Amino acid sequence: MAQFSTSPFPPSASPLPINAPIISPHFCASYPVDLSIVRKVMTFRDGDFVVTDINGNIIFKVKGSVFSLHSNRVLLDAAGNPIVTLRQKLMSAHDRWQVFRGESTNSSDLIFTVKRSSMFQWKTKLDVFLANNTDEKVCDFKVKGSWSEKSCVVYAGESSSIVAQMHKKTTIQSVLIGKDNFMVTVCPNVDYGFIVTLIVILTAINEAGAGVVGSAVVAAC
User: Fold this and answer.
1) Which residues touch 74 (CB under 8 Å, ≥6 apart)?
2) What element of type H or E holds 82?
3) Cα gap 200→39, rounded to integer Å
4) If exposure means fewest CB atoms within 10 Å of the residue's CB, which of 33, 84, 156, 195 is most exposed?
5) Would you tell me how many other CB atoms lie within 10 Å of the CB of residue 177?
6) Nearest CA to 216 among 203, 200, 205?
7) Which residues are CB-neighbours of 127 under 8 A, at least 6 positions away?
């Protein structure tokens, strides 16, 4: 179980009244949740992510597929059980990713889709569409990030309502052992499994756009 933060969100980030979880009600809490996302960057490809609570308890792991026509990643719980599969759609101009339940890649198990807001961007902007939003005219969530500031914010749709914030935490240890360390605060009633999945996709899109794998700089938002 994730540990809750005692620090309230800033006034501009009022809790979003989400009645239904995106991935699972197990990943929704009535209080802000602080998570640490650590990623090994000195690896052959698609370094593993480990997500812990503020006490260091493992909440999620992320594994990447190396030998595959598609760029797949799987979000696992602490016991190694698959929660969702992240799959990059081939030949997509906007770096489209699809997220499915479990280890499925069937359209009936699609949960949401993520893509760049536009083909050419100075700062990263991603649009998130839930599976029932088939026309994709208005996004359900938006991710905005800055590579230079190494941070990103997740908003509800086109509004200014913040549902989660991430920033990069740099320590001497993380530099020496080749790891990226990100801190994430998730608003009350927001599915933190969903937020972690968005950050993994954001990392992959940034790396693909920069043409670099395993760089701590391009792995940030």
Assistant:
1) 62, 63, 65, 82, 83, 84, 85, 86, 103
2) strand 82-88
3) 10
4) 156
5) 12
6) 203
7) 114, 115, 116, 117, 136, 139, 141, 142
11, burial (CB in 10 Å: exposed 0-12, middle 13-18, buried 19+): exposed
User: Residue 126 — φ and ψ, nearest 5°?
Assistant: -120, 140
Count how many residues are written for the chain: 221
Matching residue, tokens 């190694």: 80
Structure confidence at residue 71 (pLDDT): 74
Task: Give 159's contacts (C-beta < 8 A, 6+ positions apart).
Answer: none
The string of pLDDT tens digits covering residues 49-70 is: 899 998 999 999 998 764 455 5
Query: Cα dist. 144→28, 50, 110 in Å?
Result: 22, 23, 23
Tokens of 220: 């940030």
Please state whether the predicted TM-score (pTM) of the whole model is above 0.85.
no
Closest CA to 126 of 101, 155, 100, 151: 155
